[in-house]
Design a protein that fits this description.
heterodimer; A: mainly alpha; MetI-like fold; two-stranded antiparallel ribbon; 2 strands; B: alpha/beta; Rossmann fold; 4-stranded antiparallel sheet; 10 helices; 10 strands; about 35% helix
């Protein structure tokens, strides 16, 4: 009786594991199956390097270069804002803040991670967008920069809490060793604690960036959605994710447009996969 | 008798739990003081009050006074400067993942010393004092993590010496080492006391007897007795000291 129970539990656990793997694989194959048609009719070169995205004009243009650049521009800007800020906050929380403040900050930051992206997009639209318009004297605040700012704030909670964990898990012996040699607090942080936690910190940054690349709703609300070649950080752009979200509803099933959106999905998948993979490599890097 | 460190009525609590109770003692200059006692007797806590490493522990509170050359450590002393004057060697050698040379000059670089010649002289001197120069003179570029445990521990001593301390604290420096490496470290300590004041915390009563000029016995956070080493080991005044050194408990 007992052995039967063991057997059932073991198989149930095994089956759940397999189901989740199969589901992921199925999603990927579905994406590939739908997207692959476009490469047959348009060719990969024209799709990836084409400068015109006119999916419903006659003749249609399916070049996603402006969308890729839009995504990269917004992501890069967000990384530039969020990485220094989150490393600094993580160091503050892990090393400098007094005990009670540390706990308050940690739970507050984890709470921030729970804000739905549409709410952040809404706040961005109401605050960041008008601020950009009046500060930089541009015709519209709906720009790549607005997207970067909103996404930076979206990614930071994840980045801070994972980086803080990495800093916190540096053995206390390292810290004592540095202090014992007469290093100051800052020297200890800079020369001992940060290097020792570097792999965890890089992984935290990558995970945050992975989230930024895949984010849709907030970017769609604040970047202006102009599918033209981006001219700079203060111009409207459109990202890959926003394109799929905005156009999937109106694309005729089985049309080139429909397949093109799936092909964008493949490109996005490859991009986030690469970022996550890089994060994984750093996380499991061992010191030689 | 030349007094280097004077401890008066020192008590330490960690989040309310008492770790050290009303310790009063004097530590002589250019001598080795051995500190013995069973686990949880407060010896390491005592050691770490001497260079304020306990400050790093959350919830610590220190009362009483510690004077180094007549200066109150907990009142008119910058802990960073203090730790340059009072170095510490830990139980587990912890070299940085860098070359032998870089490990020795680590403290000097943090003080902003860049001159290559000064650094090279300092490395040779520190390694000689730590009895490591002959083994290391052709291996300065090697990764410190590749050295044996005993060599790593002597490297840690060298890097402490490089900062030019006045007092060196040893926290069970040989607990992870073989007898041969232990002998080398003890030899280095006996030589070092000519120029430095040494405090050695050890679980090994024989080691305490071998190198200590004086010995202090701690039990449950209290200093039971302290005297010239030969006296403590041959004619202890307190029965608890006698029981501990003769191996009845501990």
């Amino acid at each position: 009786m007992k052995r039967l129970k063991e057997f059932i539990v073991e198989w149930a656990v095994k089956a759940s594991g397999i189901v989740s793997i199969v589901l992921v694989a199925l999603i990927f194959f579905f994406l590939l199956k739908e997207g692959i048609f476009l490469f047959k009719t348009q060719g990969a070169g024209g799709f990836l390097a084409g400068r015109n995205w006119y999916p419903i004009s006659e003749p249609p243009g399916f070049g996603i270069l402006p969308l890729v650049l839009g995504s990269l521009l917004v992501t890069f800007g967000a990384a530039l804002i969020s990485i220094p800020l989150s490393v600094a906050s993580a160091v503050y929380i892990a090393e400098i803040a007094p005990g009670w403040l540390k706990e308050v900050l940690k739970s507050t930051i984890e709470l921030l991670a729970a804000i739905p992206s549409v709410v952040l997009g809404f706040i961005g639209m109401m605050t960041v967008v008008p601020w950009i318009r009046s500060t930089f004297h541009v015709p519209t605040g709906l720009t790549a920069f607005a997207g970067s700012v909103v996404l930076a704030f979206m990614a930071m909670p994840t980045m801070i809490s994972i980086a803080e964990d990495a800093l916190h898990s540096v053995p206390r012996m390292y810290k004592e060793g540095a202090y014992a040699l007469g290093a100051t607090h800052w020297q200890t942080i800079r020369r001992v604690i940060l290097p020792a936690a570097s792999s965890g910190i890089v992984a935290a940054m990558m995970l945050g960036i992975g989230r930024v690349v895949g984010e849709t709703m907030a970017v769609m609300m604040v970047t202006g959605n102009a599918a033209s070649m981006p001219k700079g950080i203060l111009y409207p752009v459109r990202t890959l994710t926003a394109t799929i979200a905005a156009e999937m509803g109106e694309a005729v099933q089985g049309s080139d447009h429909y397949f093109a959106l799936f092909a964008i999905g493949i490109v996005l998948f490859v991009m986030t996969f690469m970022v996550n993979m890089a994060a994984d490599l750093f996380l499991h890097r061992r010191r030689g | 008798m030349d007094v280097k460190i004077q401890v008066q009525d020192l008590s330490v609590r960690f989040s309310g739990v008492s770790a050290l109770k009303n310790v009063t003692m004097e530590i002589e200059a250019n001598k080795i003081l051995s500190v013995i006692g069973p686990a949880n007797s407060g010896k390491t806590t005592f050691l770490k009050t001497l260079n304020r490493l306990n400050d790093l522990v959350a919830g610590v509170s220190v009362s009483g006074t510690v004077f180094l050359d007549g200066k109150d450590l907990y009142k008119d002393c910058d802990p960073v400067l203090l730790r340059r004057k009072v170095g510490i060697i830990f139980a587990l050698p912890l070299p940085l993942p860098a070359s032998v040379f870089e490990n020795v000059v680590y403290g000097l670089r943090r003080q902003g010393i860049r001159d290559k010649k000064t650094l090279a002289t300092a490395v040779e001197k520190a390694l000689r004092d730590a009895y490591l120069w002959d083994e290391m003179k052709d291996r300065l570029g090697e990764l410190a993590l590749k050295l044996s445990g005993g060599q790593q521990q002597r490297l840690c001593i060298a890097r402490t010496l490089a900062v030019n301390p006045e007092v060196i604290l040893f926290d069970e420096p040989c607990s992870a080492l073989d007898p041969l490496s232990t002998a080398k470290i003890e030899e280095a300590m006996l030589k070092l006391k000519e120029r430095y004041t040494l405090v050695l915390v050890t679980n090994n009563t024989k080691q305490a007897a071998r190198v200590g000029d004086r010995t202090a016995f701690f039990l449950m956070g209290e200093l039971v007795e302290m005297d010239v080493t030969s006296r403590i080991f041959t004619a202890p005044l307190d029965k608890r000291t006698d029981d501990y050194i003769s191996g009845k408990f501990g």
